[in-house]
Amino acid sequence: MVTLTRAQMKRLTAVHGWSGTILGLLLYAVIVTGTVVVLGDEIGAWSAGGIRTDQPIVPGIDTRVRPIIEAAPAEHRTDITVFANARGELLVFPHADIQHPDSGEPEPYGTLFRLDPVTGGTLSRHEGFVFREPAWHEASALQDFLVDLHVQLHVPPPWGLILTGVLGLLMVAMGVTGLLMHRHLVRDLFVPVRPGRRLVSARDRHVLAGSWALLFAFVLGFTGAYFSFAGTVVFPLLTEVAFGGDEVAAAEALFEPPVVTDARPAPLAGLDRVVADAAARAGSPVDTLSIERYGRADARIRTFHRPPPDGMDFVRTVYDGVSGGFLELRPVIGNQPSGGALLMGLMWPLHTGSFAGAPSKSIWVGLGSMMAFVVVSGMRLWLRRRDAQPLWQGFGRAVTIVGYGLPVAMLTAAHACFLAGAVDADAFRWTPAGFAVGVIPGVLPGLLHRDEDGARRLYRGLLGAGVVLLPPCRMVTGGIGWGTALYDGQGTVLSIDLALLVLGAALIGWAMRPETMPRPRSVAAE
Amino acid sequence: MRRLMTTTHRRIAAAVNARPAAIRWILAGPGAITAALLFTTAMPLWFPAGAAGVNHIAYPLVLAPLAWAAAFIHACLVENLVRGLAFSALVHGVCGALIVIALSGSLRW
Questions:
Q1: Does residue B81 sit within a domain?
Q2: CA atoms lying within 13 Å on the CB side of residue A232
Q3: Per-residue confidence at A325, pLDDT binned at 50, 70, 90?
Q4: ipTM, 2 decimals?
Q5: Beta bridge partners of A342
Q6: Chain B residue at shortest CA distance from A346
């Protein structure tokens, strides 16, 4: 490993400890929500309920989409986007980019049609700046809430993204300083944890978990900072020097397929053949379909696909909008494969662990949980060395409150989401409200219980009860039962329910387990 | 001339070494952020675009967090603060000059 001088080691220890102490609680929030959001799609499917199909964009959509496009006002036919929500409903959105009065920026405006994917019947239609109203185009308020909490901590854009980007950089710094501080990294991967609740035992646990999570912390922090800063800070700066500040021109040059303008009227190609061909070429079903310059001879049909079983990156295809002929497979950036496109394409699968389905997602959830433990155990280690001072004692209590209170509040948000759905209230409003209400049971045990061990046991009991009650709450409030889920092949619903029951039972068992070892005072020699 | 440079260098070194903690804070804090931003902003001006014509945008877009991490860790580890400050000033100066020239229209991709 890198050999550091005594002064360098002292500085790195100070950086590692103080940055973790000052921003550790926010970092913990981002890591915990991120660990849950790794399963965002699954949580969406589980909480939305009543999924009819998980692949609504298949051959046969032409007869459903075309009448909507032809009936739309001519000014809204500039672009048509066809996608699906977490319930598997088909969403058709003919629109044009119009300047929003609040932001002053061009935003998609049009009428969004929500269709039953089986019958094709219209379930709802809304006109406006659609992507400002999540209830119109999303089916799971819980997924929407958790993703937003992770991505920007519910701080208004762009400041929320910048805040989480700073936390991503902090994670990179923690990972690199942790790596440099390790004198024996390989040995630390297998360090035997000394039993008991002494300072050395806490340090052993932090070192053991931290050693395994080092690379993961670096990758997650790096990719997270990329997602936070790329659009908000770095891309605008790059377009200043490379495109004279014209972000629209930059986006067209980098992300749009080249087209020879031809405004002559021409009918749209059959969508069914395009969808079938695109799915065969990509190796995965069409996730989103967009039609550009509808009704013109230079129309293009683009499809977006999740990574195929043997790939890591999303697949993007382009078809001629009139003949329906295949034109190209596009990389994420540019018009042909490149090192930069490969690098950018890797960012999403590396951040979300979505590159190998359930196994890779499970590993990401496990390592994310380990990261959360590393952050909390690191803060506790820092505090154990200072626990004689009242200020640090108070901070130690704050660590316990946030450590347990955040998951408690997330659980109440989930319960609120289901209960709101049951009484036809706006779940997109009541889910964040449930989180706010959940702050009370999240904070009170830590404030009222004078004995910290007792507070932790109470928290574990609360969490266990909340987790165990989620599946019955989902079913009682209108969610599908296990029999229906099995019959419809919705394994996700059953898997998440069972996982929650096991997790909840484990938490309750942990809460009821008696303390076996007395807590010693820290010893200076340790 | 050489004597003047030596005297100036000694004065700067004395000023830096008189406040090592403050200088390191500046280098690792605002210094690392501005160095990373200037470095990535200037990258399209010298980094090869490649056959696809996008590498000079894609690489700085992705590498920006690593540029900050490199500047930050360097500021934390560098033993000779005068040398560290000089290196940071060089990055700021060269990248800043490239950006100013590009924005003035003399150098445009």
A1: yes
A2: 19
A3: very high
A4: 0.90
A5: none
A6: B62
Q: Is-contact A283 A338, C-beta < 8 A?
A: no
- Is residue A341 less than 8 Å (CB to CB) from chain B? yes
pLDDT tens digits, one per residue of A341-394: 999 999 999 999 988 888 999 999 999 999 999 999 889 888 888 877 888 888
Total number of domains in chain A: 2
Residues 167-196 of A with CB under 8 A from B: 168-169, 172-173, 176-177, 180
Taking CA–CA distances from A178, the nearest residue in chain B reads B73
Q: A447-504 pLDDT, tens per residue?
A: 888 788 888 899 999 999 999 999 999 999 988 888 888 887 888 899 999 999 999 9
Same-domain pairing of A117 and A215: no
Q: Let me know whether A412 and A464 are in one domain.
A: yes
Q: Residue A399's domain spans which residues?
A: 6-50+149-227+355-512
Give per-residue pLDDT as tens, A93-137.
Answer: 999 999 999 888 889 999 999 998 888 899 999 999 999 999 898
One domain for residues A101 and A175: no
**Residue A510 amino acid letter:** W
Report the domain count for chain B: 1
Q: Is residue B109 part of a domain?
A: no
| For residue A291, pLDDT beyond 90 | yes
- Best of A234, A246, A335 to mutate (most B CBs within 10 Å, chain B): A234
B98, pLDDT greater than 80: yes
Q: Are residues A84 and A158 part of one domain?
A: no
**For testing contact with chain B, the best of A238, A342, A346 (most B CBs within 10 A):** A238
Chain A residues with CB under 8 Å of B76 CB are 8, 11-12, 15, 177
A165 and A120 belong to one structural domain: no
Give the number of A-B residue pairs with CB atoms closer than 8 Å.
127
Considering only residues 20 to 59 of chain B, which have any Cβ-Cβ distance to chain A shorter than 8 Å? Answer: 24, 28, 37, 40-45, 50-59
Distance between CA A292 and CA A279 in Å, rounded?
Answer: 19
**Angle at which helices A271-282 and A62-71 pack, to 10 degrees?**
130
| Nearest by Cα to A319 from A261, A257, A252 | A257
Chain B contact present for A521, CB below 8 A: no
**Contact by Cβ (8 Å): A354, A313:** no
Asked if residue B80 belongs to a domain, the reply is yes
pLDDT tens digit string along A493-509? 999 999 999 999 999 99
Q: For residues A44 and A125, state if they share a domain.
A: no
Contact residues, chain B, for A169 at CB < 8 Å: 65, 68-69
Distance of alpha carbon A258 from alpha carbon A516, whole angstroms: 70
> Quick check: is A519 in a domain?
no
Residue in chain A lying closest to B21 (CA): A11
Distance separating alpha carbons of residues A339 and A332, to the nearest angstrom: 11
